[in-house]
Design a protein that fits this description.
The structure is a homodimer of 203-residue chains. Chain A has seven helices and five strands. Chain A has helices at 41-45, 62-71, 89-103, 120-131, 136-147, 153-161, 165-179, and strands at residues 24-27, 30-33, 51-54, 74-77, 110-113. In chain A, strands 1-2-5-3-4 form a five-stranded mixed beta sheet, covered by helices on one side. In chain A, strand 3 (51-54), helix 2 (62-71) and strand 4 form a beta-alpha-beta unit. The first copy, chain A, is globular. The interface between A and B is large, with 71 and 69 residues. Chains A, B: One of its GO terms (molecular function) is phosphatase activity.
């Protein structure tokens, strides 16, 4: 029998874990949260992170840098101001650059965070969902789940207007090269095992 | 370069995906949502599900059963009434039984759903988080993110009072048998590869 519970020692009371506020799993090996503090480090260790995408212009605190060094985690910083006018081309470029880092599985497992895990993180995740062909209403629902009453219409507009076509086309060309034109399903996956899932149960 | 985008055909506009409302990833190979309708089936196909945990007493609709048959997905139904008095022992037993199905990786990937993906699903996920040693405030934050204004104090009390000790002890005994007492880290993981993550980047 296989189980998913992780145990560090025999006494469960010894290892209470504190995820950062607004923590969630986005996709296999992609996580999101607010700014992690030292109280969250034991929890973050369980994620086995390879990198962090940090979306604020402020320098990363020394104690967080020390944690990253000790865990061999790479920091990708994209300096987006807290209340950026979303019509500026700089934001588009920063989100596009962050998106390229985000979808590269060589950087996984990866944690995305800004300050509150609502607006900047929500925009980046929203653009990822567009790239995954989610319908806009579902993208917005997810954004609002994390932003709550702080939801910003200008962020939703940014996500809607964000052009993923050039990135998609770039991905398609890579995928075509990888699988060839004759393949029925042109999927480039992190783990090959997903393609052929063993079936233990029948319906 | 490895990428996580999945493509069904060359035209991205052909494959707009509609996740069920309140859809989210809970853990590796564990998902949650509201009741899926046929418009969500193409999206659900991308999850490559092996099973569904359904937490309502109402019979599963024929069109959903047909989808499950076609995808070879096993249905586990736990008949919990919509506004159950959480003090009834029946609920405790149902959630415990569902939890046992949920943590068994032989059933993964698995989707948990009830009607709205708020209360019954939120209770089950909350109990899973306790088993994972999350602190209660983080468990409650996650519950509220999905329940929103429909958040119920009695659900939070149920989660708080839910006794995971017997299940934890059972898991520990399995883990001890599996890894032996001498092991420094007693983790029983879905994928062994997680234990030895290759490092491609250095900080």
């Amino acid at each position: 029998m296989g189980l998913i519970v992780e145990v560090e020692n025999g006494d469960p009371n010894n290892a209470v874990l504190v995820p950062p506020p607004n923590f969630a799993m986005v996709e296999d090996c992609i996580f999101r949260s607010s700014f992690p503090t030292p109280s969250n480090f034991p929890f973050l260790q369980t994620l086995n992170l390879r990198s962090i995408i940090y979306l604020c212009p402020e320098p990363y605190p020394e104690e967080n840098l020390e944690f990253l060094r000790s865990q061999n985690i790479r920091l990708f910083q994209f300096a987006i101001e807290g209340k950026t006018d979303v019509s500026t081309p700089i934001l588009k470029d920063s989100i596009m650059d962050a998106l390229k880092v985000l979808i590269d599985v060589r950087n996984h497992p990866v944690l995305i965070h800004c300050k509150r895990g609502k607006h900047r993180t929500g925009c980046l995740v929203g653009c990822l969902r567009k790239l995954q062909n989610w319908c806009l209403s579902s993208v917005f629902e997810e954004y609002k789940r994390f932003a709550g009453v702080k939801s910003r219409t200008m962020d939703l507009t940014f996500i809607e207007m964000f052009d993923i076509l050039s990135l998609s086309q770039c991905l398609y060309s890579i995928i075509y090269q990888y699988h060839g034109y004759g393949s029925k399903k042109r999927r480039l996956l992190n783990k090959d095992e997903n393609l052929q899932k063993p079936r233990l149960t029948s319906f």
